Amino acid sequence: MSEQQTTILGGGIEIDLGALVRNWQALDKVSGKALTAAVVKGDAYGTGIKTVGRTLYHAGARFFFVATPDEGVLLRKAVPGAFIFVLDGLVPRTAADYAAHNLMPVLASMSQLTEWLDFCLNRGEATPAALHFDTGFNRVGFRMQEADLVKRELDQSGFQPQMIMSHLACADQPTHEMTRKQNGLFQGILNRFPDTPASLANSAGLMASKDYHYHMVRPGIAVYGGKAINGRPNPMAPVFSMQVPILQIKEARIGETVGYGAAYRLRRDSRLAIMALGYADGYFRALSGIGGQQGGRVAVNGTVVPVLGRVSMDMTAIDITDVPGLVQPGDLVEIVGPNIAIDDIGDAARTIGYEILTTLNGRFPRRYVNVPEGIEVD
């Protein structure tokens, strides 16, 4: 363990690389003939882009998607042989930097396309890039009505894009009409580019139907063990776990209050544990247990217990009254693990598991377990 990974306090984050590999391989099997990429933006959803990139490349992934060119540069150092797409597109006046690191921008506007084509012309080489069409998401992407103009520009330049892409807005809701609508619009786009590979499916689209697979699928959250489709059991193996230590245990009487604002009043004599975790570590203040509102839940010695009072910057109170056996300062509290899933925390915070996974890092060290042979960890 490196100096950066050690902690006097105890606890920390554990990333199971064996589970990560099994998840990607399972998704690769479901994708059938389609190529299975890996989305590693947001520091590989908070799990470490360099180590995860190496691990997934070792497992067979060759195509990777990052959000920013800086993420792409970092990933390129870890996996020199990978094909790397930058989802944010082309940052103005930086085309040469993309080419220098062999990064493929996902072009999403006429200005980006024009700048990239001019760069290729001046360079005397058709440097690879992909195109993103907006099929109703209203995020980045060429408008549908720009398809003919894009086709004309490509025909005039002789540039052949590596891929035509779009992104599903509602694939996590399997019966949502929007997904079928977007798929139909995407097929209309592809009719104009019949010889270009296509990609539409994220994790949810991959798992929902082979109709969305096309030439390449782009799983993200499912690779990291998160739930991709609402209303269905999550078949993915958990990758991320976290434990933090108890700082102090105290007895409190019925009627006493807990935390900032005296926002929670005890309804019984209680045994409280103060754990070393707060919103500075990414444990959202929205997980506070105040008034009649249930907040976050954690596990102590395998027993699930509630957060009491407001989550503060560095500390949070939990109710261990009903935990059997001895609990003492220094014992570890399960924040994410066998009893508490990332998506459980997301539900309690009225958000999604994605946000929890990419935020819950804070000041605790990250350790890797079940590391495949030959993989260097950072």
Annotated CATH topology of the largest domain: TIM Barrel
Q: State the domain count.
A: 2
> How much helix is in the residues?
25-40%
End-to-end distance, in Å?
A: 10 Å
Number of helices: 11
In the CATH hierarchy, the architecture of the largest domain is: Alpha-Beta Barrel
Mean of all residue-level pLDDT scores: 95
> How many beta-strand elements?
19
Q: What is the CATH superfamily of the largest domain?
A: Alanine racemase
Percent strand: 15-25%
Family: Belongs to the alanine racemase family.
Function: Catalyzes the interconversion of L-alanine and D-alanine. May also act on other amino acids.
InterPro entries: Ala_racemase (IPR000821), Ala_racemase/Decarboxylase_C (IPR009006), Ala_racemase_C (IPR011079), Ala_racemase_N (IPR001608), PLP-binding_barrel (IPR029066)
Pathway: Amino-acid biosynthesis; D-alanine biosynthesis; D-alanine from L-alanine: step 1/1
Produce a short descriptive summary.
The chain is 29% helix and 21% strand. By secondary structure, the protein is of the alpha/beta class.
Structure description:
Belongs to the alanine racemase family. It catalyses: L-alanine = D-alanine. One of its GO terms (biological process) is D-alanine biosynthetic process. It comes from Pelagibacterium lentulum. Substrate binds at residues 139, 313. This protein has helices spanning 17-30, 41-46, 49-59, 69-78, 95-100, 110-123, 147-157, 177-192, 203-208, 342-348, 353-359; strands at 12-16, 35-36, 38-39, 63-66, 83-86, 103-107, 130-132, 163-165, 198-199, 216-217, 240-252, 257-258, 264-265, 270-275, 297-300, 303-308, 316-319, 332-336, 366-369. The model has no long low-confidence stretch (mean pLDDT 95). It has eleven helices and 19 strands. Strands 1, 11, 14, 15, 16, 17, 18 and 19 form an eight-stranded mixed sheet that branches. It has a seven-stranded parallel sheet with strand order 3-4-5-6-7-8-9. The radius of gyration is 24 Å and the shape is elongated. It has two domains: 31-224, TIM Barrel, CATH 3.20.20; 240-369, Lyase, Ornithine Decarboxylase, Chain A, domain 1 (Beta Barrel). With 378 residues, the chain is α/β, with parallel strands linked by helices. Helix 1 (17-30) crosses helix 3 (49-59), helix 3 packs across helix 4 and helix 10 (342-348) crosses helix 11. The longest helix has 16 residues, at 177-192.
